[in-house]
Amino acid sequence: MFKRKLVALMLGTALAASMLTGCGSGSTSSSDQTETTEAAASSDSADTADSGDKKVGVSMPTKDLQRWNQDGDNMKKEFEAAGYEVDLQYASNDVQTQLSQVENMISGGCDVLVIAAIEGSSLGEALDMAKESNIPVIAYDRLLMDSDAVSYYATFDNYMVGTVQGTYVKDTLDLDNAEGPFNIEFTAGDPGDNNAGFFFNGAYDVLKPYIESGKLNVVSGQKTFDEVATPAWATETAQSRAENILSSNYADGTNIDVWLCSNDSTALGVENALAANYNGNYPIITGQDCDIENTKNMIAGKQSMSVFKDTRTLASQVVKMVGQILNGETVDVNDTDTYNNNVITVPSYLCEPVFADANNYKEILIDSGYYTEDQLK
Ligand code: BGC
Q1: What angle do CA 203, 189, 294 make, to 5 degrees?
Q2: What atom of ligand 1 comes closest to residue 142's alpha carbon?
Q3: Ligand 1: does its nearest atom lie under 6 Å from the Cβ of 65?
Q4: What is the average pLDDT across 35-53?
Q5: What is the best residue among 32, 118, 193 to mutate for testing ligand 1's pocket, by most ligand atoms within 8 Å of CB?
Q6: Residue 289 Cβ < 6 Å to ligand 1
Q7: Ligand 1 atom nearest to CA at 263
């Protein structure tokens, strides 16, 4: 099944430019803020007939990570273009803030909620409120856990993100043929984010046979998700853990061949730690998101690959789903098995992630209008 998906993925890379929706990219301001906007004057797009007087609450986790700014900006733009009023809020990675922002969206008359949770299981009270008020909820990118008040989930194929990373390592080291052994370390994401386990497992499942056979050696011995997780996906936390691993296991000149990082913010921490604490051969480093700093590092040879998740594609999908929900139409989903939130299996739409490296970044990031060349200088 995953082979088929990977073929689709490679095709996806080639087709990326034509798949993209052409919306502009977002800002990267670092301070969290609230944006409530009036609907744009009604346009003639197909979904506008019923959307003019509807309000969508969009709750994003933080402005500190580049991607959420892009997600928020893209959704705001697209919802407004379709005639909706948008209440877009960022919660400074603070669970209580997000809870009260979502509650305010409900009392403020939002007709639909789109939520990317800081912590998947911490919004129960607000979700109960939404359910009582018959407000549909779309979990955005991260699954909302432990609640039956989640109507739909729109995300990228999270397990596939990990598979792409693991397969890259396997192919680059030619693990089936090379003699090895190779040294590897893992850095995963936030245990409060349901995605983090999918990313880690997707990568680990590809590499596990080689770890078991001894061709890949986890020198620190840290190879369970709990051991390698990074609370809040924080760059600084990933960096200090990497510094500890380097000083305890690699200070004697041992080379590290691979650092499997689940995303770009954690990869950045590992890259910082290596720059200051390691003199051996530079390892393969994986990432996810194609953040600007990491794309620059890919171009400079300090990060090997990333996984591009075009936030414009996800935003468009969510705008479409909201229109379908409010118009009482069948809602687009392509996965009804994978995402159980401990109470219900949430019908999901999974977009396809795309492999990115220094060889194809121009095509997928610049030619598609996601970044300008200047942003990557
Ligand atoms: C997202 C990743 C992101 C991470 C940290 C995850 O839920 O899917 O794209 O890198 O959160 O923000």
Answers
A1: 85
A2: 7
A3: yes
A4: 45
A5: 193
A6: yes
A7: 10
Tokens of residue 355, six digits: 């492999």
Q: What is the dihedral of CA 193, 198, 200, 201, to 10 degrees?
A: 150
CA-to-CA distance for 89 and 112, rounded, in angstroms? Answer: 14
pLDDT tens track for 231-279: 999 999 999 999 999 999 999 999 999 999 999 999 999 999 999 999 9
Cα angle value 127/157/76 (rounded, 5°): 55
Using an 8 Å Cβ cutoff, are 167 and 6 in contact? yes
pTM: 0.87
Decide: helix, strand or coil at residue 266.
helix
Ligand 1: which atom is nearest the Cα of residue 289? 9
* Ligand 1 pocket member 288 (CB < 6 A): yes
The CA–CA distances, whole Å, from 376 to 21, 347, 371 equal 21, 37, 8
Question: Where are any strands of DSSP class E within the chain?
Answer: 34-37, 55-60, 85-90, 112-115, 137-140, 152-156, 182-187, 216-218, 258-261, 284-285, 305-308, 348-351, 354-357
Those residues with Cβ within 8 angstroms of residue 172's Cβ, 6 or more apart along the chain or in another chain: 284, 304
Which residues does residue 156 pair with via DSSP β-bridges, in sequence order? 351
CA of residue 44 to ligand 1 center, whole Å = 34
Tokens 């008020």 appear where? 133
Q: 116 C-alpha vs ligand 1 centroid, how far in Å?
A: 10
How remote is the CA of residue 263 from the centroid of ligand 1, in Å? Answer: 7
Q: What one-letter code names the amino acid at 165?
A: Q
Which residue in this structure is represented by tokens 């990228």? 156
Q: Is 141:153 a contact under the CB 8 Å cutoff?
A: no
Helix or strand holding residue 206 (H, E) = helix 194-213
Q: What is the DSSP letter of 50?
A: G
